[in-house]
Amino acid sequence: MSTTAVREVADATRTPLSLALREGTRAEHESAERTGFVEQLLAGRLDRAAYADLAVQQLAVYTALEAAGARLRERGDDHELVFDELTRVPAIERDLRFLVGDDWAARVRFLPATQAYAERLATCGDDIALYAAHAYTRYLGDLSGGQIIARMMQRHYGFGTDGLEFYAFPEIHKLKPFKDVYRERLDALPLDDAQRAAVVEEARVAFRLNQAVFGELGEVHAVA
Predict the structure, then answer these.
(1) pLDDT higher than threshold 50 for residue 5
(2) Looking at the domain 15-220, which fold is it?
């Protein structure tokens, strides 16, 4: 069998990258969800200020992530993994205007863990594998568990739609088919085995960085 044929057989039997990501980050994902801040927020034991602070940290994270995606797209290296429909920064800014006030930009502050997360994301615009890892953890999470978070914020803290635009995707009419397309594009990325392993490892890093942000938010918004 030729080298090309061997490679084709290997590609055909290889675990899809989206599945490798899901299975490879399961422990980190579950650990992040069990962070005290997340549990307290979703249980309604905190307040709107805690949610607003979470939105502030998300602004830094998504500003860096979407800048990285824009750099990849400008070079033609995004492999159609950058979707305009997923852009979150404008929605976060509208949420902060509602949550903090018109002068929100002068009042927000980013936690050290958030700054470390954003710095890591700043390197992703040069590598589609790194970008894919972080985009997977953020956007698919927003389209899945993020929808539950929005409902919990409405239930426990009296939100309507204002302040929760981050979790709304008006340009995506059906979330599941869109998520399927996203996974298909992940699976189609032209990565070798070493690059695929790097994607999974970087996704683990992403979850740990996110958990560190939750940890610091928990210190700021501790239950009395």
Answers:
(1) no
(2) Heme Oxygenase; Chain A (1.20.910)
